[in-house]
Amino acid sequence: MAVDAALKAIAEPRRREILRLVWHRELAAGSIAARFDVTRPAISQHLRILKDSGLLTERREGTRRFYRARPEGVEDLREFLEEFWETSLRRLKVEAEAAERRLRRAERRAIERRKRQ
Amino acid sequence: MAVDAALKAIAEPRRREILRLVWHRELAAGSIAARFDVTRPAISQHLRILKDSGLLTERREGTRRFYRARPEGVEDLREFLEEFWETSLRRLKVEAEAAERRLRRAERRAIERRKRQ
DNA sequence: GCAAACTGTAAGTTGACACTTTCGTAAGCA
DNA sequence: TGCTTACGAAAGTGTCAACTTACAGTTTGC
Fold first, then answer.
1. Closest partner residue to B11 among A11, A88, A96, by Cβ?
2. Å: B111 CA to D20 C1'
3. Beta-carbon pairs below 8 A across chains A and B
4. What's the CA–C1' distance between A41 and D20, in Å?
5. Per-residue pLDDT for B22 more than 90?
6. Interface contact A92-B11, CB threshold 8 A
């Protein structure tokens, strides 16, 4: 699954920051690395992971490489998670509401009983 | 950040499966482990990670421990990611549309030029 | 062609992590 | 009081991942 790699990529805080940096604008590898306190190769490796997981695109211009978020990749991940909750959270909510209704009914009955005594 | 731990927890496929299992219904540690082909302690460790990250609740009954998804934890993670895309994806979409409009405009101009020649 | 600029790649290290087997513990039961 | 059940905790192992330093590859200006 390609989304699996993207999810793992996103799980790393530094990579989330990188993704945020190149979200709107294109940025060169060097300018990205300059914003972190780790070495440039470390960022280069993060960039590769993000690119391989489909979350980033690379554009070469001269000696420089510009990176930018890849909307399709981000969308795929978003949809995967959306489905992960949607198919389940909805039922959770329904269950919670049903449980609450049961509770309220039980309370009402208890009050009725007390009244009758 | 608590959400950070939850995101890391979710990044593991097996833990996503566990979470799905206890999404609607409560399940004992043993019955959860029985559905996987790894040893029981391995699942026990996964359960701990999920619990510590706030995605699961534990209820003890006799010698057994029942686990269940914790809606608030899941919701927190969901909202965190929602914000992660929302603040950014929207602009990405706007940018993509603007780029497309520019492209179409350029195409139209090219066609006009060809007609005039 | 040659040096400088910008970058990825290779190799090694350290720590985290997903497991395993073994042991400990608490509750229920004969 | 033992014995069983249902677990988690501890300790050990192999693998992966996030770094580091050192090196190699491309493009550009002279």
1. A11
2. 55
3. 56
4. 9
5. yes
6. no
Inter-residue contact A5 to B11 (CB < 8 Å):
no
Q: Which two tokens stand for residue A1?
A: 């699954």
Domain extents in chain B: 2-72
Q: Is B93's pLDDT higher than 80?
A: no
The CA distances from residue B52 to B47, B48, B58, B113, B116, in Å, are: 8, 6, 10, 66, 70
Chain B nearest-CA distance from A39, in A, is 23
Residue A93: the pLDDT is 57
Question: Please, is B101 exposed, middle or buried when counting C-beta atoms within 10 Å of its C-beta (0-12, 13-18, 19+)?
Answer: exposed
Check whether residue B46 has its CB closer than 7 Å to nucleic acid strand C.
yes
Topology of domain A2-70, CATH = Arc Repressor Mutant, subunit A (1.10.10)
Question: From the Cβ of B48, is strand D under 7 Å away?
Answer: yes
Residue whose tokens read 């010698």: B63
**Tens-digit pLDDT profile for residues B45-92:** 999 999 999 999 999 999 999 999 999 999 999 999 999 998 765 655
Architecture of domain B2-72: Orthogonal Bundle (1.10)
* Comparison of pLDDT for A88 and B9, the residue scoring more: B9
User: Does the predicted TM-score (pTM) go above 0.85?
Assistant: no
**DSSP SS3 for A73:** helix
* Residue of A65, A30, A79 lying closest to B89 (CA atoms): A79
Backbone angles phi, psi at B33, to 5 degrees: -60, -35
